[in-house]
Write a structure and sequence with these properties.
mainly alpha
């Protein structure tokens, strides 16, 4: 539990937004990191607000949904890269 909390928090604050920010053509890496961080915070905030509003709050669900978002955008990036290399 002591190690898990910082790892999960770091993941939630960076991974989903970074997966989306990599899809956007941004030449500046600092700007891309900032956008990734802002997107991650927005995504997690939106998910928690939706769950609180519907009365179905579950931290595990928030983590699983962010994993789903991250994996989905990661797969999109892989597909684009394969299409670009194969073309």
């Amino acid at each position: 539990p002591v190690v898990r909390a910082p790892v999960v928090l770091g993941y939630l604050l960076f991974a989903p937004g970074w997966a989306i920010a990599r899809q956007i053509a941004i030449p500046d890496s600092a700007l891309r990191i900032s956008i990734g961080l802002a997107l991650s915070i927005s995504i997690v905030g939106l998910l928690t607000i939706i769950q609180a509003f519907t009365g179905s709050w579950s931290p595990v669900t928030v983590v699983l949904l962010t994993v789903l978002i991250t994996v989905t955008f990661g797969c999109i990036e892989i597909a684009r890269e394969r299409r670009r290399v194969g073309a």
